[in-house]
Write a structure and sequence with these properties.
mainly beta; four-stranded antiparallel beta sheet; 174 residues; three-stranded antiparallel beta sheet; 1 helix; Immunoglobulin-like
């Protein structure tokens, strides 16, 4: 009986030693390099590169005409979020919205790794001219077409990524 107990203890010690050696050797191997994240409309973020974004999410812009009697439309986004990995300077500090080459809105972060924008932050949207029917070439129901650019910027105001879309506004028909 003692021989069986002694043999069982030896088997347990040997198995425990093998598991410990396996854990030590697997802990020393480097994990595989993750592939860059791809966001909406082709934006890219590389989480292991310094000064990069770990995520950049943008909902599609939309344009609406609050008052059909006035040639004013509103461009807005439901949601925009950019996150910096905060590994080394320069850090993301701005989120800039540009409409047809004109900077229209800046959101900022102060010692934070994430900037979030929601449609209710600018409840009336970014005001633009609706335009006459077919002004942008999209048909008689539509007016102007605007190029919208969103860029997370570092502390030196250099773009860290870019997201670009076109938005078509309804036509103003007095």
């Amino acid at each position: 009986m003692r021989k069986f107990v002694f043999a069982g203890i030896l088997v347990l010690i040997f198995t425990g030693g093998m598991l410990m050696v396996d854990n030590l050797t697997s802990a020393q191997t480097a994990p595989p390099t993750p592939t860059p994240l791809t966001g909406p409309m082709g934006t890219q973020a590389d989480p292991i590169a310094p000064n990069s974004l770990t995520s950049f999410t943008v909902s599609n812009p939309y344009c609406y005409q609050p008052d059909p009697a006035v040639d004013k439309c509103s461009i807005n986004f439901r949601f925009v979020q950019a996150t910096d990995n905060q590994s080394s300077a320069p850090y993301m500090t701005w989120l800039a919205f540009t409409i047809s080459g004109k900077k229209r809105y800046n959101a900022t972060a102060f010692f934070e790794g994430t900037i979030t924008y929601s449609y209710d932050m600018v409840p009336n949207g970014l005001i633009v001219a609706c335009g006459s029917p077919n002004a942008g070439g999209a048909g008689n129901q539509y007016g102007n077409v605007y190029g919208v650019t969103i860029q997370p910027l570092d502390s030196s105001r250099n773009p860290m990524s870019t997201d670009i879309a076109n938005v078509t506004c309804p036509a103003f028909s007095p």
